[in-house]
Every structure is written in C-alpha cells, then in structure tokens.
TrEMBL record:
Record-linked Pfam families: SBP_bac_11
Species classification: Bacteria, Bacillati, Actinomycetota, Actinomycetes, Micrococcales
InterPro entries, per database record: ModA/WtpA
Signal peptide residue numbers: 1-21
Protein name in the entry: Molybdate ABC transporter substrate-binding protein
Keywords associated with the record: Signal
Organism: Microbacterium sediminicola
Length: 233
C-alpha cells in the first residue's frame, strides 16, 4: 500500500506502520513531504491508499472528494515548541514544560530575535496570525523567515540562518545543533491534531481502513508519546 504524510509525522508513522505489519496488516510505504505538497499531490489525483495530514487539511480534501470523509481519524496531537541554535552536534531533547511563563515572554523573545524561523503548514500559519493579532507584523515582517516546504526549522537554526525557531515539538526532538526551550505556554499554545484517512484512490479500501484503525488506536499510544506527541483523544 502507498501512503503520503507531512514531514511532522514521518518518524511516528514509520514506527506505527512497522507495528501494524507485525500484527499481520498490509505493509504500507509512506512518502513524507511538506504538508502543502502532500495535499496538492492528493488533490491532483495521485494514487494513494492512505493520507496523513493535519485534520484541517484532511477535512478540505474530504470536502473535495479526495479522501473518504467518514474515515478521517485522529492520530496524534502535536504542540509547537520554541528552539534556539545550540552550537553543538548533539540531538535536541524535549524539556518538560513550556518555554515561557506566558504569552508576554513569547512576545519579548520574538521582538529580541534578529530572525525568526517558522514552518509551512498549519503551525506556521497560526504563528504568523498570532503575531499579527499581537500587532507585531509591521516590526517583524522582514525578520520572519519561512522554511521551504519539507525543510525543518531545525535545519535553519543549526545553520545560523535564524536565531529563534517555532515548529512542532516532534520535528525538533533529536535535531542536531538545536536547543529546545520548551512548548508554547497555555495562553498562546499552538496545537495541531494530525489525522489519517482512506484515499478515494485506494486500491483496497477495506485493507486501508484496517491499517488506519490500528495506527490510530490505543494499541500504539506508547509509540505516539515516545515521539513527543500526545494522544489525540
């Protein structure tokens, strides 16, 4: 079987798909690309059996008839975290709590940064919208650096292209050259629910549905949390 996903879920999907295969379910080859590109490929009619994207993106694909609406199932919840360059080659570890006490601390950090990195997809869109709601767009517009689709913010941090970065925690953990300060505080948290769905181009819809039911079940909860996601339900 063939599946497509955004980069945010590539590692957790590799492990849950391996667990599914160990249970005797069909083997699934997952292509992980930028979320915008993934949605575009599905919308263009490329053949896939399963699609894993942010829930909002899947809803749009379902409305357009590209995935089976009734099959959309939450997989995991991801929090956006804040990171800075570490100057070392060590992989980043996940801290226990938020990076700042409240939104005021986040605003201060953004104002103090020469270049702020953010990703494509829903988390980056939410960050830019939040900065605009804070009235900071005029002072920040030429200091905001969006990563190219499929390129993690961590790479820009490690390369010194930005000095403050915002991305899904799951994509920052393990990245070399990065120190994760923590997730965003509760009063400005950006959370994304990633979900899966059966594509309308699926060669074996029943088999795809069986795989989806397993990889989005409590049976893989430990795998999901090990990748710095939270259960989606």
């Amino acid at each position: 079987m063939r599946a497509i996903s955004s980069m945010a879920t590539r590692l957790v999907l590799a492990d849950v798909m391996a667990a599914a295969a160990a249970r005797g379910l069909p083997t699934v080859e997952v292509a992980s690309v930028g979320g915008v590109d993934a949605a575009a490929r599905v919308a263009a009619g490329e053949q896939f059996d399963l699609v894993f994207l942010a829930e909002g993106a899947l809803t749009k694909l379902a409305d357009a008839g590209h995935v089976v609406a009734a099959s959309v199932t939450p997989l995991a919840l991801s929090q956006v975290a804040v990171a800075v360059p570490s100057g070392t080659d060590e992989g980043a570890t996940a801290p226990a709590g938020p990076a700042f006490t409240d939104a005021a601390g986040v605003r201060e950090a953004i104002r103090g940064a020469a270049r702020v990195g953010y990703s494509t997809g829903p988390s980056g869109t939410a960050l830019v919208r939040m900065i605009d709601e804070w009235g900071m767009t005029p002072e920040m517009h030429d200091r905001l650096v969006q990563s190219r689709p499929g390129v993690p913010v961590a790479s820009a941090l490690a390369a010194g292209e930005v000095d403050l970065g915002f991305q899904q925690l799951s994509e920052l953990v393990g990245a070399p050259g990065v120190t994760i300060l923590g997730t965003l505080p509760a009063d400005c948290a950006i959370d994304t629910v990633f979900a899966g769905a059966v594509a309308t181009t699926a060669a074996d819809p029943g088999g795809a549905a069986a795989v989806l039911a397993f990889v989005c079940s409590d049976a893989v909860r430990d795998i999901v949390t090990a990748h710095s996601f939270s259960p989606a339900r």
